[in-house]
What does this fold into?
Amino acid sequence: MASTSDFKNGLVINHKNNLWKIIEFLHVKPGKGPAFVRTKIRNLKTGRLLENTFTSGVKIDVIRIE
It folds into this structure.
């Protein structure tokens, strides 16, 4: 298990029971409210691109692909 602070481009994660590859991410700290991570992720099975927002500190399953 990893948290959102471990995100990097090319990392493969398990999200909604599918494998997703992080294309790009941005850590945002607004002046009001909690921090969050805005990501663009690609489904490895279908190739679909999705923009998703994770709250900072959320635990994510990281998958090692060889």
